[in-house]
Amino acid sequence: MEKRVTFSKWTVGILFAVPQLLLIFTFFYWPAGQAVYWSLTLQQPWGGGNIWVGLDNFKSILSSADYWNSITASLVFAGISTGLAMFIALVLAALTDRQLAGSRFYRVVLIWPYGIAAPALALAFRFILAPEAGFMAVVNRMWPGFWDPGLDGVDAMASIIAAFSWKYVGYNFIFFLAAFQAIPRSLIEAAAMDGSGVVRRFFDIQFPLITPTIFFLLVINITESFQDSFGIVDIMTSGGPANATNLMVYKIYSDGFKGLDYSGAAAQSIILMLLIIVLTIFQFRFIERRVHYR
Amino acid sequence: MASITIRDVTKSYARSQVVHGVDLDIASGDFVVILGPSGCGKSTLLRMIAGLEEISGGTIAIDGTVVNRLEPRERGCAMVFQNYALYPHMSVAQNIGYSLKVAGVPAAERTLRIQAVARILELEPMLDRKPAALSGGQRQRVAMGRAMIREPKVFLFDEPLSNLDAKLRVQMRSEIRKLHRRLNATSVFVTHDQVEAMTLADRLVVMNGGRVEQVGTPGEIYKRPASRFVATFVGAPAMNILEGVVELDGLSLLGGSRRLTIPRVGLPVGAKVAMGIRPEAVRLVAPGSQGVLNATVDLVEELGAGRVIYVDLDGAAFSVVTSETVHPAPGETVGLKISPEDMHFFSSETGARLDVFKASVPVPAH
């Protein structure tokens, strides 16, 4: 049944693959290899030789309280923003699926946030959530000192979570809506005939049938929350106040390019990579079991 | 067991009206088949009874209660869908028992009832399987089981056999009939397949263009079609239609100089009519004798038990079903003998039946 293109000579196939392989090698394997090498050496800040130090970089990072604070902040950020972005998108998509007039309009409008570069949207949110002016200023007027992301670490974390979730709600919505639409109408009607109400139908029929999409989005959202958060943190909080929002991806940048500790930053990026790999394996091993593939 | 009363029901969408004022009475325990070509509004009518489609006008009452405003679950109907609509993530047992689970029936009782239904439908060995692991016929049975377990007042079938192969379809047809005899629940079955309709129905409703053309037993519909549409839609091969003008002593057929003797009954001279004759009612005789239409054979279809002979009658296609041992070859001239009592007449303008034989054609009592 499956149609595959086959080449009579294997050389032709290799030739087609070469451009892609070249790109992957140049922009992924080579830098990744360099990072591994750097993480095992001590690089001079202004170039000119290095010293092999083995696992010393890792040892010093893992014994630093700052670094563990950064891991905690990253996990909190990943957990809350993924949960928020997926939950809001799921609710919106479920509501849209029921009354579909103008759904093409929603689709276009809701994919826009995903198309906006993280620093640009971060700047917008910096203004929106500024304590001195705008909406949050009104709240501050009512409860003085309620909101100040420049001073309060929790407020700062909430700000970057809001910005990141806003971007991914649209992305998730598109996938959720497509998944809901792919459920045959007659299944919903059959459930209605079986006496199941709107809410019950959602939990008994629709939700189980979109679990493949939920799982896919979970993996993507968690991975992206570790990586795509850099621009938002850089513009909105610069990791502050008092390292409250110094996420792992931002700490790599600030330690490496501001602190000129290339080796430490390289070791951190290896740890971040391993963390994402472990989380993804965990999701495939333990969460995918609950997914119903049709 | 419930009767269904449909009064002047209409359905319109934004731009078009698809059901125009349908009136229908379905007696308690009846097996009613709604037959019509695709797009005639038959499925829409069924879905309006089920509550899956809003009723634009008129009323539908089940057991005397108007259900227009009721949710599907409050109407006491169960439905078997064309594509079965089984829940793909649930096992056969869960599929069948879902309505009981929703209704809050305790698990122990649920299991007993699922097993009882599975026994009737011979689904016991596959209760733990998912629908994806079942054959078409088995899925069909699960869909029926899901409808049966609720012991509904009304069974609704939306072309449930059209996805099955021919052999399975015949088998499921008789199973549905048996099931109806056993449960005796009011059933409404929608199909475009006339064989299915004729074999299943206590009463047949023929629909066309959003209107009911005729309601009657399969025998009545076959023997006394109420309109030209019903005449040509029910029966295979379709009824032959010859257009003509009534004259003093017969019917002058259009498109040629042929004349046909017709019974002396109240058709006004000069009226344009369509004469219908079933292919089974035409007899093949030697050409050239008195009162016989000569025609050239186009094509012979061998059916084993008989054969269908397609002839050319001055450009009009005409078919004859015969079991006689004549083997006319294409190109040969044959004579067609048509008895006046087998003729049906329809108005050329409205297509309505012109009742010339009211007294002479016996209609079986029912």
Automatic annotation (TrEMBL), chain A:
The chain crosses the membrane at residues 12-32, 71-96, 108-129, 156-180, 201-220, 265-287. It is found in: Cell inner membrane; Cell membrane. InterPro entries: MetI-like, MetI-like_sf, UgpAE/MalFG_permease. Residues 71-283 form the ABC transmembrane type-1 domain. GO terms for cellular component: plasma membrane. The complex is composed of two ATP-binding proteins (UgpC), two transmembrane proteins (UgpA and UgpE) and a solute-binding protein (UgpB). This is sn-glycerol-3-phosphate transport system permease protein UgpA. It comes from Mesorhizobium helmanticense.
UniProtKB/TrEMBL annotation, chain B:
One of its GO terms (cellular component) is ATP-binding cassette (ABC) transporter complex, substrate-binding subunit-containing. CDD domains: ABC_MalK_N. PROSITE patterns: ABC_TRANSPORTER_1, ABC_TRANSPORTER_2. InterPro entries: AAA+_ATPase (IPR003593), ABC_transporter-like_ATP-bd (IPR003439), ABC_transporter-like_CS (IPR017871), ABC_transpr_MalK-like (IPR015855), ABC_transpr_MalK/UgpC-like (IPR047641), Mo/tungstate-bd_C_term_dom (IPR008995), NA-bd_OB-fold (IPR012340), P-loop_NTPase (IPR027417). GO terms for molecular function: ABC-type transporter activity; ATP binding; ATP hydrolysis activity. It is a peripheral membrane protein. The keyword ATP-binding applies. Residues 4-234 form the ABC transporter domain. The keyword rRNA-binding does not apply. Belongs to the ABC transporter superfamily. This is sn-glycerol-3-phosphate ABC transporter ATP-binding protein UgpC.
